[in-house]
């Protein structure tokens, strides 16, 4: 009958509209999730940038000064990152240390903009924000729910310990970032078999 044909036609149109709207809804959810993550990162940055030009006289001052001394010697002398030198060691005061990635990065910035102490703090803040992102990514892989991942990254963003160590010039925050990134790489490789992520986790 005509009524039955109209009902079938109406259901068909509804199905077509639902199918067309589903990708749009998915994109909207992804965009909303990206905006939420960007807001979390912006809030984390605001917490870490508070008084970022202050002198390096907070806790762990000696380690911050050692890091910047190594950077200064890379900047003024030989840029060979496996021979770090500190000022208190006298002439060519070589020191046993971890792989001096942070002093080397600070020295590179020194060569671009000149020796400014805030360069080291800004580099650490960048690693701290990368740690917030890596926490989000790891939570998405392990749990699958973006709301859980946002919660995990927000907790990392507002953690007092993460804020404190995420703005002082010592290698702890970069070390933690690379550790979490390695976990992200291996977890993503286990899930998708991506060689790129395997290399990321291994490196």
What are its keywords?
8 helices, single chain, 74% helix
Short description:
The protein has 203 residues and is mostly helical. The chain contains eight helices and no strands.
Mean pLDDT: 84
Point out poorly predicted stretches.
Answer: none
| DSSP strand count | 0
Number of helices: 8
| Structural class estimated from helices and strands | mainly alpha
Which range best describes the helical content: under 10%, 10-25%, 25-40%, 40-55%, 55-70% or over 70%?
A: over 70%
Radius of gyration: 24 Å
Largest sheet: none
Encode the helix/strand succession as letters.
HHHHHHHH
Shape: globular
Note down, in words, how this protein is organized.
With 203 residues, the protein is mostly helical. 74% of the residues lie in helices and 0% in strands. The chain starts with a helix and ends with a helix. Helix 2 (61-76) packs across helix 3 and helix 4 (118-143) packs parallel to helix 7. It has helices at residues 2-48, 61-76, 101-113, 118-143, 146-158, 160-165, 172-192, 195-202.
């Amino acid at each position: 009958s005509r009524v039955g044909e109209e009902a079938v036609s109406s259901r068909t149109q509804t199905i077509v509209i639902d199918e067309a709207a589903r990708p749009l809804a998915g994109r909207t959810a992804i965009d909303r999730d990206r905006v939420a993550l960007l807001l979390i990162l912006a809030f984390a940055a605001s917490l870490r940038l508070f008084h970022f030009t202050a002198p390096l006289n907070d806790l762990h001052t000696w380690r911050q000064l050692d890091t910047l001394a190594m950077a200064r010697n890379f900047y003024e002398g030989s840029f060979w990152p496996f021979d770090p030198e500190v000022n208190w060691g006298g002439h060519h005061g070589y020191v046993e240390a971890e792989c001096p990635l942070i002093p080397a990065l600070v020295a590179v910035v020194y060569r671009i903009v000149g020796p400014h102490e805030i360069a080291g703090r800004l580099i650490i803040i960048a690693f701290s924000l990368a740690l917030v992102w890596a926490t989000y990514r790891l939570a998405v892989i392990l749990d699958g729910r973006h709301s859980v991942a946002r919660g995990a990254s927000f907790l990392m963003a507002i953690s007092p310990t993460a804020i404190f160590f995420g703005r002082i010039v010592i290698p702890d925050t970069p070390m933690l970032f690379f550790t979490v990134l390695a976990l992200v790489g291996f977890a993503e490789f286990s899930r998708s078999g991506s060689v790129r992520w395997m290399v990321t986790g291994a490196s």
